[in-house]
Amino acid sequence: MKRDMELIRRILFKIEEMNGGSLRATYFSDVDARVVEHHFRLLDDSGFLLPLPAAPRSHPNNPNPNRSRVRSPSTGCFIQDPQLSSKGHDFLDAIRNDTIWSKVKEQLQNSVTSTTLETIKALAVSIGAKMLGI
Q: Cα–Cα distance between 63 and 19 in angstroms, integer?
């Protein structure tokens, strides 16, 4: 499954505006739930989401409880109390402006078929700096 940067951006914006609760995959009704779940996990894996606080060890056979906020019960995938990490906030701030985001996408279409999140952020920061005359 390919990474959809538009969906990642939408998810980050939604998490930022939330104040507690859970973000369900069904919120993005125009996208297949499995695709949304995959992107939830990509954000979690990339360090864009804060992990859940460490739970006390309740059983010696479970020394490393799952601290991921992404849950996939039979009722559908969701992010439990989603919170952006500093890295997530930095990435979103870099791609927040619609003009910068359009220029990032345009440059990426002209040069490569895919790239890393770090490269996208660096490109967005560079474009933003040029727009500010820095």
A: 30
Give the helix/strand (H/E) hosting 27: none
Long-range contacts, stretch 113-120, CB < 8 angstroms, 24+ apart: 114/2, 114/3, 117/8, 117/46, 117/91, 120/5, 120/91, 120/94, 120/95
Only one residue has tokens 């010696």, namely 60
pTM of the predicted model over 0.90? no
| Contact present, 123 and 107 (Cβ < 8 Å) | yes
3-state secondary structure of 60: coil
Domains of the chain: 5-85 (1.10.10), 97-134 (no CATH)
Please state whether 81 falls in left (phi above 0), alpha (psi between -120 and 50) or beta: left
Extended beta strands in 1-134, E state? 22-24, 70-71, 78-80
Do β-strands 78-80 and 22-24 pair in parallel, antiparallel, or remain unpaired? antiparallel
Structure token digits, residue 13: 């914006």
pLDDT per position as a tens digit, 63-120: 555 678 888 887 788 888 899 999 999 999 999 999 999 999 998 887 656 788 999 9
